[in-house]
Write a structure and sequence with these properties.
alpha+beta, about 240 residues, six-stranded antiparallel sheet, elongated, Immunoglobulin-like, 2 domains
């Protein structure tokens, strides 16, 4: 093999290495290391961070219902708490008015130093296996609260995502909650909503979305084709 051919061959290998590294990094970035479910109050966020709630979205995934609170214009998720309660009755902040949401149990979400952007729905009723209703229960002196009506008491997990900033609250619909002494109804096709995309729910949907693996392989093959074509034209000169 001539020096030119050897140089071209090494360029091909280098190109494939770069493509493989990029593909591997994309696959690693798409993996979700989810925390375990817990039957307790959760809290977190960045102390002092100010934010506006820009979206509220819900979707059913295999084993859990997901609620995502979006903060599109904030760098961090503000301080928050997610408190479980044994009923779906809530008290509106400031007014003291009592309201009851769909379901028999609930979650109370409270955000500090937060307001609500225009256009965000004040009440949604997705009727998922566990999450039956999500309603704003207060926005007073930059403290925002939401009530989540659940079909029955269940364990939850909460975690934060970035770009954009989001708080994710998953409600267990699997056998895990039953093992903790909680009753969870089985999901049916009439109850379950179609999972939404990454921007909507915080992770790739289980149904109706292109496979990350297939997209990565397609990208890798396209890069290989370009590298081989360029090397072949170079050698023929």
């Amino acid at each position: 093999m001539t020096a030119i051919k050897r140089s071209g061959f090494m360029g091909l290998i280098a190109g494939l290495s770069v493509a493989s590294a990029a593909f591997g990094g994309a696959m690693q970035a798409s993996a979700s290391d989810l925390p375990p479910f817990a039957c307790s109050t959760a809290s977190g966020g960045t102390p002092g961070a100010a934010a506006s709630i820009s979206s509220i979205r819900v979707a059913h995934h295999s084993g859990y219902d997901r609620l995502v609170i979006g903060f599109a214009t904030a760098n961090d998720v503000p301080q928050f708490s997610v408190q479980r309660q044994g009923s779906s009755a809530f008290t509106r902040d400031a007014s003291g008015q009592s309201i009851r949401l769909q379901g028999s149990a609930g979650l109370r979400l409270v955000f500090q130093n937060t307001d609500i952007a225009d256009g965000v729905a004040a009440d949604i009723q997705p009727n998922l296996p566990q999450i039956r209703e999500v309603a704003n229960t207060g926005s007073f002196e930059r403290v925002v609260s939401y009530g989540v009506g659940l079909e029955s008491a269940a364990c939850t997990r909460s975690f934060q995502l970035s770009d954009p900033s989001r708080l994710v609250v998953d409600v267990d619909t699997s056998q895990d909650s039953m093992q903790a002494g909680l009753t969870v109804p089985a999901a049916t096709s009439s109850q379950a909503a179609t999972p939404q995309d990454l921007a909507a729910t915080g992770r790739p949907a289980a149904l109706g979305q292109p496979s990350v693996l297939a997209a990565g392989i397609g990208l890798l093959l396209a890069v290989i084709g370009l590298v081989i074509g360029g090397w072949y034209r170079f050698v023929r000169r």
